[in-house]
Write a structure and sequence with these properties.
The complex is a heterotrimer of chains A (301), B (414) and C (320). In chain A, strand 1 and strand 2 form a beta hairpin. Chain A has a domain of 198 residues. Chain A has eleven helices and two strands, in the order ααααββααααααα. A two-stranded antiparallel ribbon of chain A has the order 1-2. In chain A, helix 1 runs parallel beside helix 5, helix 3 packs antiparallel against helix 8 and helix 10 packs antiparallel against helix 11. Helices cover 74% and strands 3% of the residues of chain A. Chain B has 14 helices and 14 strands. In chain B, helix 9 links the parallel strand 8 and strand 9. Chain B is globular. Chain B starts with a helix and ends with a helix. With 320 residues, chain C is mostly helical. Chain C has one domain. Chain C has a two-stranded antiparallel ribbon with strand order 1-2. In chain C, helix 3 packs parallel to helix 5, helix 4 packs antiparallel against helix 9 and helix 12 packs parallel to helix 15. The longest helix of chain C is centred in the N-terminal third of the chain and has 26 residues. Classes of the chains: A mainly alpha (301), B alpha/beta (414), C mainly alpha (320). The interface between A and C is large, with 38 and 43 residues.
Chain lengths: 301, 414, 320
């Protein structure tokens, strides 16, 4: 199944590796969109400073791991966790609304510190329950690869790519086509108009925040399918998720997919061409550049 | 009324307090800070158990110089910034008599200025080239290596014998792995090996498929890996998933994690064929007096304390620290650090990990690091590692218990 | 000088004298090691509060500025063999410049965008240090501490005194800013940036000043770490603990008044030293997280706010 590279010169070799990097970057990029789409809703549309999003993601991964120990398929486990996460998200938003939005401090330092505290508690909770060691799940699609053209692709990446694409696409359609979806988009722009239509903006926001949190369950499952996780791991995803959302432009759902691809491919190329020690800074560096040059993002309103 | 009673009581206690030392000897206090949480926590807790068991044993025999031994251990949280404060606390607040170092070099390095400045004896615990620049004459390392050459040299010798010409390096960007890799490169240069691939990855990296693919494309004979536990597991999974190619004769070197029971149980057959350094394995050639008894007792305690159930890598060596202190104190009848250090330099110490003699820098005079190849390892079975033949010592000659299987792909199927 | 001002400076002088007396009387070095760590957080919390408390810009990346300071000191030692004073000045300069650059880059950003940008600065900077072999790269670097200085008996005592000086300086700077036009301007920025701007408050300039001063103080606090720890590697120089604690301490202490972060840091820092040997680091962090939430929800004005409320109540009850 596995073919070793032919005896070509250095240039051909690096071209081959570059092609490899781009293909793999595309697969990862779609996954990045899936882990970021929830943040695009909560932060991009609702203006809630949800810095605990990456920590929620990890909570999804560990939930999947727990269910996996009972023999459940990780992706199925992710889907099962979604309603629980949805309810948790609704409760979290309700608390946030009562404490901060009513005081008119939705974006003050208190609300930021609040979500920062939530993230910290999740991280510590995971360490106390699971320890600092890495955890991985088992599934038939983890641990082998298929060869497409000359490129061996790990099946887990392909599975994650397909699921992420379907999931992100579905969510974008939901927000664009359904009544609730359109109400969620409207709440971001004009609460007053929504009130005139007889819709309670707080309820809509609560629903939307529930959805945003529920996405982290499945996205977390994808994460642990792709790679083993440990409790500190979410920090890397602070950069990745916010990079994708900011790059896309807050509120642009379709942009999230493209931004995910841009990040995935850039990381992959940097990793292959410049070395792994620079790869982790790609998301943060890209984020800084976008924030400095075009804070409204590529497709921002 | 109450206050008068309390005053009398306090006065009585004070009198007792001044009399006490004259009657009962104060215990000998031994202090250490060791990671019980954080990334080094797993190893640190196992090492601590080894020291604790020595303290219990020595107290059961009546203590040292007729005095009980008391261990004071703090958690350095795997953070080097905590150790200067913790060791000054041990020295100045707890007033300990003897010091044992933290697990690994990174948390130990920050206390070296204090040790040197106050001219203290430090029994360091699995450090690596710690004393190379400082040259303090009272530091003693319990680890079986002295430098990168004797840590991984055995693997290169096997590869060269099998006709290896090209080498690939994959190393974590951290203190220990970088130092070992620098040493491995010196070996490669000496052996005239051509470096065809070199990658340094950041700690916590989780996707190695691109790197493994690049290694395969470079067609090396030797793949030298220096990694930390988390990445060791991911790398071996990636190798299984994508494959490193048929050119590779030997794979491994300095992968940390493959010495710890839980990691080994987890990886199972994925480790087959890998050649890697370790400190102790239950092969016939390492059956030192007392070590089996120690490990049997350790296993029971490990279960209660939820630490590595095998405990091959650190605990016997931590216990050996206690044994060395015991011999030095008993022989010299002293707790003076200068006297003890002189004794440790001059005499060969008898421990459950063999006899240990030190060189001028407090490293092993005769380094001897077992290079093991994993063979016939099954999945999800902790008990199998207690039998000889799973981690076969393939180098150095004095410890060798079996032959290395090459090339790597053939060894993997074994 | 106002009466409050006179009181502050007398208090500051008293603290310095007390610290000096302590170094002369106390033999036990542990107190100076522990005191150094606690006081470092007094500087960091105070510095954080200049931007976070007064202007309402939350810095998640304190570690970037501390790390920059530590590594500036290492460069000063390695390249120039500079004494501690020069190390601190250089560190303050570099970290202040970094603060200025961060401010410049994120001038147009509000709220959470600024916070995320500071995380990014921390990570990108750490990556550069990791790849910079001159300062040891990822493997770290050993700094040989000079032999004891005769002046204060021991090097540790001197480091402690330096940190006392930095703490007093930080509090003085924060207090001076607070009562000056800069403080009033920053508060206007915090309350409503658009309104402040339309009233002619030079918001951009104020933010840049706050970023620079805050960064410089953090860098100065990071500089002595090089000789204190004597072995530095990026992972601990850029430790997330700095970022977490520098944010939690002012919020618990109270962000409106300069004494809030000082109080928060003394309280939290001492607690950390006391419990570090008895409870695990995880539990420690859990306590921080819970206290953070309890305070932002229940007492947004912090301990200082609670104290003032209590004092006002007592005064009210006392006069019928």
């Amino acid at each position: 199944m596995i073919q070793a590279g032919t005896d070509t010169g250095g240039d051909a070799l690096s071209f081959e590796l570059l092609l490899d990097a781009i293909v793999l970057g595309m697969l990862v990029g779609c996954f990045y969109a899936a882990v970021s789409i929830g943040l695009s809703i909560s932060f991009g549309l609702l203006d809630v400073p949800q810095v605990a999003h990456p920590a929620m993601l990890l909570l999804g991964s560990y939930g999947t791991y727990l269910l996996g120990r009972w023999g459940l398929d990780p992706l199925l486990a992710g889907v099962i966790l979604m309603p629980i996460f949805f309810l948790f998200g609704m409760a979290l938003y309700r608390g946030f609304h009562e404490i901060f939005e009513k005081r008119g401090e939705a974006t003050g330092i208190g609300s930021l510190a609040f979500f920062f505290g939530v993230a910290l508690i999740i991280e510590v909770g995971l360490i106390m329950v699971f320890g600092v060691d890495q955890r991985a799940v088992e599934a038939p699609y983890i641990g082998s690869s298929i060869t497409v053209g000359d490129i061996p692709l790990p099946i887990r990446m392909v599975v994650a790519f397909v699921v992420a694409l379907l999931f992100t696409g579905g969510l974008i359609l939901y927000l664009a086509k359904t009544f609730t979806g359109r109400a969620i988009r409207a709440v971001a722009q004009d609460e007053g108009a929504l009130k005139l239509m007889g819709v309670d903006p707080v309820k809509i926001k609560q629903w939307a925040f529930g959805i945003a949190t529920a996405t982290t369950a499945l996205a977390g499952a994808l994460l642990i399918v792709i790679t083993p996780v440990d409790p500190n791991y979410y920090r890397l995803y602070i950069g990745r998720t916010f990079c994708v959302v900011v790059l896309a432009g807050p509120g642009s759902m379709g942009g999230t997919l493209i931004a995910g691809l841009i990040l995935g491919i850039s990381e992959s190329i940097v990793l292959t061409m410049f070395g792994a020690s620079w790869a982790q800074a790609v998301s943060f560096g890209l984020l800084l550049v976008v924030l400095g040059l075009r804070p409204q993002g590529l497709f921002g309103r | 009324m109450k206050s008068i009673l309390r005053a009398i009581l306090l006065a009585g206690l004070a009198v007792l307090g001044t009399l006490a030392p004259a009657q009962a000897q104060q215990p000998i206090k031994i202090g250490m800070a060791v990671s019980q949480t954080g990334t080094l926590g797993g190893g640190g807790r196992a090492a601590l158990l080894g020291v604790k068991m020595w303290v219990e044993d020595v107290n059961a025999k009546g203590g040292l110089l007729g005095r009980k031994v008391e261990l004071i251990a703090y958690d350095d949280q795997s953070q080097p910034s905590t150790t200067p404060t913790l060791y000054t606390k041990l020295l100045d607040v707890d007033k300990v008599d003897l010091l044992i170092g933290p697990y690994a070099s990174v948390p130990t390095a920050p206390i070296m200025p204090i040790i040197k400045q106050r001219d203290l004896l430090l029994m360091s615990n699995f450090t690596f080239e710690l004393n190379r620049d400082l040259k303090h004459d009272k530091v003693f390392n319990n680890a079986p290596w002295t430098n990168a050459e004797n840590l991984t040299g055995g693997m290169f010798d096997i590869a060269v014998k099998a006709g290896a010409k090209k080498v690939a390096f994959l190393a974590a960007d951290q203190e220990f792995t970088q130092n070992v890799t620098a040493g491995a490169k010196r070996i490669a240069k000496r052996l005239n090996l051509e470096t065809v691939y070199e990658q340094i990855y950041p700690p916590g990296n989780v996707d190695f498929s691109a790197m493994i693919r690049a290694i395969r494309a470079a067609k090396p004979d030797i793949v030298f890996v220096a990694s930390y536990p988390n990445e060791s597991a991911v790398i071996l999974r990636g190798v299984n998933e994508i494959g490193v190619g048929d050119s590779v004769k030997v794979f491994g070197g300095a992968m940390i994690g493959l010495q710890f029971g839980p990691v080994m149980e987890n990886l199972g057959s994925l480790m087959n064929g890998v050649i890697n350094f370790t400190s102790y394995v239950p092969e016939k050639t390492m059956d030192y007096p007392g070590v089996r008894d120690f490990l049997a007792r350790y296993t029971k305690r490990a279960d209660e304390e939820k630490v590595d159930p095998l405990g091959y890598y650190l605990p016997p060596f931590s216990y050996a620290i206690g044994q060395m202190l015991e011999q030095a104190v008993t022989a010299t009848k002293s707790l003076d650090h200068k006297v003890l250090a002189a004794h440790l330099h001059k005499n060969e110490m008898k421990t459950i990990v063999g006899s240990i003699a030190f060189d001028a820098l407090g490293e092993r005079a005769k380094p001897s690091v077992p290079m093991v190849q994993f063979q016939n390892v099954a999945d999800k079975n902790m008990e199998q590692f207690r039998q000889p033949g799973k981690m076969v010592i393939v180098a150095p000659p004095e410890l060798k218990s079996g032959e290395a299987v090459v090339p790597f792909e053939k060894a993997r199927k074994k | 000088m106002t009466r409050a001002g006179a009181k502050f400076w007398v208090g500051a002088a008293a603290v310095m004298l007390l610290a000096l007396a302590a170094t002369a009387i106390l033999k036990n070095e542990y107190w100076f090691y522990a005191g150094f760590v606690v006081l470092q957080f007094v500087v960091l919390a105070t510095a954080w509060n200049i931007l976070g408390g007064y202007a309402g810009y939350v810095n998640f990346g304190t570690s970037a500025f501390v790390g920059a300071g530590t590594y500036a000191a290492i460069v000063a030692i390695k390249a120039l063999a500079a004494p501690l004073g020069v190390q601190i000045l250089l560190a303050a300069g570099i970290a202040g410049l970094l603060g200025f650059a961060t401010g410049l880059l994120t001038l147009r950003l509000r709220g959470i965008f600024f916070s995320i940008a500071t995380v990014a600065v921390a990570i990108v900077l750490e990556t550069f240090i990791v790849n910079w072999r001159f300062v040891g790269g990822s493997t770290g670097i050993q700094i040989l501490r000079p032999v004891d200085t005769g002046l204060f008996g021991s090097y540790t005592k001197m480091l402690f005194l330096v940190m006392v000086g930095l703490s007093v300086a930080a509090a003085a700077i924060a207090r001076t800013l607070e009562i000056s036009w800069i403080g009033r301007g920053l508060r206007a920025v915090r309350d409503n940036e658009e309104a402040a701007e339309s009233c002619g408050v030079p918001t951009l300039r104020l933010k840049l000043i706050a970023c620079t001063i805050s960064g410089a103080l953090m860098g100065a606090a990071g500089a002595p770490m090089a000789v204190y720890q004597s072995y530095i590697e990026p992972a601990s120089a850029f430790s997330l603990n700095y970022s977490i604690l520098a944010l939690a301490m002012p919020i618990v202490g109270g962000t409106a008044h300069w004494s809030g972060p000082v109080l928060g840091a003394l309280l939290f820092g001492t607690l950390q030293q006391v419990v570090s040997a008895t409870i695990s680091s995880e539990l420690n962090r859990l306590v921080i997280g819970v206290m953070l939430i309890v305070f932002v929800v229940g007492a947004p004005a912090g301990i200082v706010g609670l104290w003032r409320k209590w004092a006002a109540k007592r005064a009210g009850a006392g006069s019928p």
